[in-house]
Amino acid sequence: MTDKFADNAERIAFAEKARLLDRTTASKALFERASKHLPLGVASSFQAGDPYPLYVAKGSGAHIWDVDGNEYLDFHGGFGANMVGHAHPKVVEAIDRAARTGTHFAATTDVTVQFAEELCRRFRLDKVRLANSGTEATMDAIRIARAATGRDVVAKIEGSYHGHHDTVMFSVVPNADAMGGRDQPLSTPMSKGIPAGMAQWTTAVPFNDVVAVDRLFSDRGSEIACLIMEPVMMNIGCVPPAPGYLEAVRELCTKHGVVFIFDEVKSGATIAEGGAIERYGVQPDLACFAKAIGGGTPAAAFGGKAEIMDVIEHGAAQQGTFNGNPLVAAAGLAALTEVLTPDAYDYLGALGTRLADGCAKAIAEHGLPAHTVDLGAKGCISYRAEPLTNYRDFLETRTELYGASFPWVVNRGVFMTPGDEEQWTISVQHTDADIDRYIEVFSEFCAALDA
């Protein structure tokens, strides 16, 4: 029996990839130049492409232009960092003002304190420390949890990404043959260069599985310093928590003295003004933030309960030359207080629902094995008919359909994240017309798959 969608996806992917290469010759040339000095020709391995990535020249509002001069509507959003859009006047003004009075001192400034105060207010934290990336935030939060508990083992969710420090580079994107059983997922390293002995300090449980957490804590609770999780899994599309799941895990962490850490690097300030903490009403012991909190600059933070954060005052190291940098703090403060206001979230919510509903309509019309997820400024299309609940569900998605969709939308002026595990990010500078253009392009793709 033939699979019409698979056959058409193969044909579409072949034609659209060839077209993409034809219209990005300047990106190809820059790739060849960059590869002489940058591994894979990029500054981060996540930016790599096959056979080369698009290289961006500039951005304005909800639009970007590549080095070939092609214009795109940006739904990539810098992996979710650009909810304010590009060159937002309020953020530009804040950066300009900071640059004119000094970009770095390695000393705390007034604007740094204001930024910390806003983060605590917005995310209901007692105390916060600043960092420069999501990786640093999760690394520091785990160290603080270990110091506070006197325990060493870290529990995480199977298939989740929490940055590229060694402790959390286990069970991130394990292949089916390297996952172990559902009841005992293996701690498989994501990268070469991680000492084999590190595996003893990290263990994984499936998302949305309270029984698995209860079993792990009953067996090893006295060893476990923390459980770190994205309250919405966002490295396999968007997988919301099942009703009652976060509440039950919160209770188990309290019962066993395990520090509960939310990784809100992607969900913080995107799925609600107060992130997942606000949206789901569950308060972790610590929470980590980056991306959208910085208005497009490299801002990050972690914080939570005072009694845990105060171990920093008693021998737990948390430091960094650029932590609280005044230029970054000024941009973040402007983004959170002047751009991402309550009215902005109403606007983003309406746009997100418009986009998800429009794409869902096209999926239903053409009978595609896919579904949409709507989480305010965040959302996604996953190529599996049934909603995902965990990483093992993600392994059932139709990757060949995504492989055809990416060059299709890019060739029609929609810039998206280069992976079937990612999602869209809507900015305050997107319009209804921008959303409708995305829906139009995606609807045409669905029709081509169904031809």
Task: Describe the protein in words.
The chain is α/β, with parallel strands linked by helices. It folds into 2 domains: 4-83 and 341-449, Alpha-Beta Complex (Aspartate Aminotransferase, domain 1); 89-339, Aspartate Aminotransferase, domain 2, CATH 3.40.640. Helices cover 41% and strands 14% of the residues. The chain has 15 helices and 14 strands. It has helices at residues 4-22, 25-34, 77-80, 89-101, 110-123, 134-149, 210-220, 245-256, 275-280, 306-309, 326-339, 342-366, 391-394, 399-411, 432-449; strands at residues 56-60, 63-66, 71-74, 127-131, 153-157, 202-205, 224-229, 259-263, 286-289, 300-304, 371-375, 378-382, 414-415, 424-425. It has a 7-stranded mixed beta sheet with strand order 4-10-9-8-7-5-6, sandwiched between helices. A 4-stranded mixed beta sheet has the order 1-2-3-13. Strand 11 (371-375) and strand 12 form a beta hairpin. Helix 1 (4-22) packs parallel to helix 14. The chain is globular, with a radius of gyration of 22 Å.
